């Protein structure tokens, strides 16, 4: 028997009430939004429920929405997969822009360790309880987070991007 969206939605709303909402089918992925303070029990429930069996975390990433109100400026998106039924699920959790933080799920899915570090590195989202939350791809000395929309597109002080080095001139001929 195929895992139906209605079963997922019913089980989640029965267990988490208003902390899960905005259920919708987006192409081939069933998606929902959840409250940030319920992410750990929600992920545990989805993984351990004998009917749902979302045993695989495909992806975890961040998003910056600078034009949203402060309570919804950042989001963390979780993609889960039930391999038995080949069913995918997307969970989006919005975070406060002034202090973006959420509990780590690295104790539930070990694969999230690297993904949470990458999200921290690029967006500055703090994953509470992460065993080693530090930069993973950028230099430790960096004070900004390059995937935030306020991050400058180009460093004006760089000389290695000077057009003269590429055989181009800035004068009109």
UniProtKB/TrEMBL annotation:
Residue span of region Disordered = 151-173
Catalyses which reaction? a quinone + NADH + 5 H(+)(in) = a quinol + NAD(+) + 4 H(+)(out)
Q: What residue spans carry the Basic and acidic residues bias annotation?
A: 151-166
In its UniProt record, a GO molecular function of this protein is: quinone binding
Give the Enzyme Commission number. 7.1.1.-
Q: Which GO terms describe its cellular component?
A: plasma membrane
Any keyword Transport?
Answer: yes
Give the record's keywords alphabetically. Cell membrane, Membrane, NAD, Quinone, Translocase, Transport
Q: Where in the cell is it found?
A: Cell membrane
Topology relative to the lipid bilayer, per the entry, is: Peripheral membrane protein
- Report the domain of life of the source organism: Bacteria
Domain NADH:ubiquinone oxidoreductase 30kDa subunit intervals: 33-155
What's this protein's function? NDH-1 shuttles electrons from NADH, via FMN and iron-sulfur (Fe-S) centers, to quinones in the respiratory chain. The immediate electron acceptor for the enzyme in this species is believed to be a menaquinone. Couples the redox reaction to proton translocation (for every two electrons transferred, four hydrogen ions are translocated across the cytoplasmic membrane), and thus conserves the redox energy in a proton gradient.
Q: Which family does it belong to?
A: Belongs to the complex I 30 kDa subunit family.
Q: Extract the NCBIfam families matched here.
A: NuoC_fam
Q: How does it assemble?
A: NDH-1 is composed of 14 different subunits. Subunits NuoB, C, D, E, F, and G constitute the peripheral sector of the complex.
* The name this protein goes by in its record: NADH-quinone oxidoreductase subunit C
**Per the UniProt entry, what species is this protein from, by scientific name?**
Flavobacterium crocinum
């Amino acid at each position: 028997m195929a895992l139906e969206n209605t079963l997922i939605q019913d089980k989640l709303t029965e267990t988490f009430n208003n902390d899960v909402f905005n259920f919708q089918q987006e192409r081939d992925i069933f998606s929902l939004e959840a409250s940030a303070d319920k992410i750990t029990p929600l992920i545990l429930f989805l993984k351990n429920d004998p009917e749902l069996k979302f045993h695989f975390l495909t992806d975890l990433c961040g998003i910056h929405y600078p034009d949203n109100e402060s309570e919804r400026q950042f989001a963390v998106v979780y993609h889960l997969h039930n391999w038995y039924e080949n069913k995918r699920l997307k969970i989006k959790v919005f975070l406060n822009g002034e202090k973006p933080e959420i509990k780590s799920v690295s104790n539930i899915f070990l694969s999230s360790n690297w993904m949470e570090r990458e999200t921290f590195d690029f967006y500055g989202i703090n994953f509470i309880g992460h065993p080693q939350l530090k930069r993973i791809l950028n230099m430790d000395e960096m004070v900004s987070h390059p995937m935030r929309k306020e991050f400058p597109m180009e460093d004006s002080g760089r000389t290695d991007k000077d057009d003269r080095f590429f055989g181009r001139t800035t004068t009109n001929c």
